[in-house]
Input
Amino acid sequence: MNVAYPRLLLVCAAFALGETLAWMAGALDMAMLVGLAFGAGAYILTQDIGRGGGSGGQRRYWRGRRIDDDKRRWN
Output
């Protein structure tokens, strides 16, 4: 499942929330920086969402097929 669009929406919402809070606090000159900090924080916190966990280890693929590293089968 592709989670890129919901993640983008969450980052944009965090940016808007940060700007809104800064405007409500009266820090109009800092609103852009506060929004940027909130958006960056949301981006960093959602970095691992949507990545496959599971079995672990490093899998390598070539042309859509898994590479077999078992060298005993090469002979």
